[in-house]
Amino acid sequence: MNSKEVVVSIFSTVFKVVLAIIIVMLVYKWSMTAYDYGQRVFNEPPVSAGSGRTVTFVVKEGETAKEIGANLEKNGLIRDAALFRIQEMLSAYKGKLKPGTYELNTSMKTEEMMMIMSMEAEEE
User: Fold this and answer.
1) 98: nearest Cα among 79, 113, 84
2) Residues 79, 108 contacting (CB under 8 angstroms)
3) What is the C-alpha to C-alpha distance for residues 94 and 60, in angstroms, rounded to an integer?
4) What whole-number distance in Å separates Cα of residue 17 and Cα of residue 57?
5) Tens place of pLDDT for every residue, the chain, 124 residues?
6) Residue 79 CB partners (closer than 8 Å, separation 6+)
7) pLDDT tens across 60-84, in order?
8) For residue 116, what pLDDT is reported?
9) Which of 56, 75, 105, 114 is most buried, by the most CB atoms less than 10 A from its CB?
10) Both ends of the chain: CA-CA distance in Å?
11) CA-to-CA distance for 116 and 124, rounded, in angstroms?
């Protein structure tokens, strides 16, 4: 084996080790992100602690959970509209959000907001 082959072999081995380390780091990062997101689906804390801020929120006729989530996020009631959509799909309130005007607070959890948006409209 000449010196050129040894250098190429060493370079190849180092490259493979570095590539393996990068792959492991990316898998770890993505796994932690997925785990955190999964935890938030079932245990998302309210946007603010304490008494929070009350917001008048309107659900229009025919709005989807995706659109409602985007509006909730825009109004500062939730942090992540995509997460709201997943939470709605996995909750007992799937497909039960009703059009209407609601008084929601930034100290409410997402499930509390869904409960209000699915029940209060029935009483009106």
Assistant:
1) 113
2) no
3) 17
4) 54
5) 788 888 999 999 999 999 999 999 999 999 999 999 889 888 888 998 888 899 999 999 999 999 999 999 999 999 999 999 999 999 999 999 999 999 999 999 999 999 999 984 444 4
6) 44, 47, 73
7) 999 999 999 999 999 999 999 999 9
8) 94
9) 114
10) 87
11) 12
- Residue-wise DSSP of the chain: --HHHHHHHHHHHHHHHHHHHHHHHHHHHHHHHHHHHHHHHHHPPPSSSTT--EEEEEE-TT--HHHHHHHHHHTTS-S-HHHHHHHHHHSTTTT----EEEEEETTS-HHHHHHHHHHHHHH-
The Cβ of residue 109 has, within 10 Å, a number of other Cβ atoms equal to: 15
Name the token pair of 113: 């907001």
Residues 72-84, buried b or exposed e (16+ Cβ, 10 A)? bbebebbebbebb
Rounded to 5 degrees, φ, ψ at 9 are -65, -45
Nearest to 43 by CA among 109, 116, 118: 109
* Residues 107, 52 contacting (CB under 8 angstroms): yes
Residue 35, token pair as written in the block: 């785990």
